[in-house]
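The methods section describes the discrete structure representation at length, but only in general terms. The central task, working out the structure tokens from the amino acid sequence alone, is never made concrete. Nothing conveys this as quickly as seeing an actual entry. For illustration, here is how one protein appears when written out as sequence plus structure tokens:
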Amino acid sequence: MDATTTKNKLVITPLPAFSDNYIWILHNHTSCVVVDPGDADVVFDFLKENKLRLETILVTHHHPDHTGGINKLVQQYPYTSVFGPKDSSIPHITQKVVENHKVFLNEIEMIFNVKELPGHTLDHIMYEGHGVIFSGDVLFSAGCGRVFEGTYEQMLRSIDTFFNYPDNTLIYCTHEYTLANIEFALTVEPNNETLKQFKAWALRQRSNNFPTLPTNISEQKKVNPFMRLDSPEVIAFCEKQSGQKDLDRIELFTILRKAKDNF
């Protein structure tokens, strides 16, 4: 299922990989950019079927399900540019980027800005521009990534970054976790009517084998408990979990994320 932007008829396509990953392909029917290619073979198949030339790879962090296909791709396309976080062990990176670096994708006439989002991993970055964000494993639809390497405070600060973008900004994350995230979110906010409607929509999408992504900022403000730390139901849930009152935002987030880990 394709999502088409308004710029130069660019198409953004999700390629399912493994059990629940999406590899995002941006193309203009000639050249293409690939985001987080964990599996090279599904990318090769798409390139061949659509007669596309791979120009650039964008990587958000070092986990193998996001990087495992890079080696085979650059062997087949040796002149491919590979952008990734500077402080990382990811092989084959040709352009190491940090906060506010610009990524010029001349082949598809786009420029992305880099934002550092530590928490899930210490090297995690995202790419944003033209009304879209490739958020890797930081923000999911109705959820967020686990805190593996950073601190809960870092992860919360990274998630708070998304409040800086317009409501219609599209978020392309890399896992189809939406329904599982909704189930947890409903235990936190059982009276959230928008969340209940969102579940019904997501069930229809998945029953037809359509992705639930991209999502957008406005939607996440209404259904994602990790972006709703000021909700009375979220606060009450965290207070019940911890047995404490007057929790600050970091404490609320930490309790909520740990509850999701054990859900």
Notes: The longest strand covers residues 11-17.
